[in-house]
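Hey, I'm writing a tutorial for new members on how sequence and structure tokens pair up, and I'd like a real worked example in the thread rather than a made-up one. If someone can provide the structure for the chain below, I'll link this post from the tutorial.
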Amino acid sequence: MTTETADHKLKIRNLTTADYDEIEAIMQQAYSGMGGAWTRDEISRLLTIFPDGQICIEDMGRVVGAALTLMVDYSKIEDDHSYEDIVAEGKFSKNDLEGDYLYGIDVFVDKDYRGMRLGRRLYDARKELCEKLNLKGIVVGGRIPGYSKYAKELTPDQYIDKVIKREIVDQVLTFQLSNDFHPKRAIRNYIPEDTRSKSYAVLLEWNNIFYQSKKKKMIWGRKSNARISSVQWQMRPFNGIDDLLQQIEFFVDAVSGYNVDLLLFPEMFNAPLLANYDQKNPSLAMRSLAELTEQLRDEMLQMAMKYNTNIVTGSLPIYEDDKLFNVAFLCRRDGTWDSQYKLHITPDEAEWWGFQGGKDLKVFDTDIGKIGILVCFDVEFPELPRMLADKGIKILLVPYWTDTKNAYLRVRRCAQARAIENECYVAITGSVGNLPKVENMDIQYSQSAIFTPSDFAFPHDAVAAEATPNTEMTLLADLDLDLLKEIRKHGSVRNLESRRSDLYTIHWP
């Protein structure tokens, strides 16, 4: 697992003719035995006839993967068609802007970026395009490159059936099945030169469940709906950072299967590693733990890109300029990161470990809109969320660590109030279990939750999701961000709009 993720900055966008040299190099890699790359003229033709359908991912300005697509009239495509029938020697004559389906003609990723799930991200972009254009779905002719190993003992239909049942893993078909594509039938002589597939392919279809609805999504911009998740984390002994990372990746992997946009971990969830340091000097132990923070942040940033979800790392200790801080990191799925320092330190944190408070309050731009992060005690100061709301946040994230129920209830009640006062969503999460060998962090109490404003459009108890107390688990909730615009303008009461700014204001000096 690499830690060089700070050098990545992934961006999804449409292809341009200026990208051709990079596209050619990747295609020559991917299709060295199958004809190599499309020509410059062919790529230019695609960009002329259907520019929205040609999508790429760039990293630090360099294209590292792409998906090429046509729009087709499904009724005019024979079930047993060939790849050449669709691309027509690079003329792409089957493209029909009055069509009802997208046809995926190519997806390829630079070999140095394989394993980062960029193919999945490109497929998701196609799905968003399909929804935006209000088409019935997407069809592809899926190669089955693993079939050559089984051709003597299995027919193509038998091989496909075993891949569907997960008895065989096929490099291409398994990936497409995991992206919600459904097989319709085998196609003979799809690409004659595809010897690994024995010239067979599978006609696959993804159905757009929003077809004919009026709902539209922005392509690769900020979503109107965000799916967020939080981990209620079980404190348990870890031998070292590798064991901790394995447990972290388990949760990231698990929720990524639900296409989560943002995942939240608790405050100081790496505290079990304190057991590896001298408990007679808690302050020194915490400073030793801080030496692992940069590696932990970079590994979680790698996971954010690999699993295509934004991750808030809870909070982690940082020792800089001879001062100890408690810091939450936002690891974006485009490869960038940022941080929010805990501003208010409890008397216990100051006395036991020597933590100090930060000095800046940030609003973070993400692909689901503006968010804020307040670490535990900070949410108990209503001025901070109000200033964040004034700067446009729609989601507030609160990682916490509490040892007793009354401590937890301070965080919970204040978080619920912040959701109502600022007409925003607030997600909170903490840790559960016991750490017998860690001084001052030996017991935990948590009931993670995602709160909403309190009005008719939201759940009657203003709770979108809620965990079982003191049980390790994850929460998931879909949050309608456009609904916040509605409540702020037309809600039963309008807290933000009704403020008496002629009488009082909040000022950050």
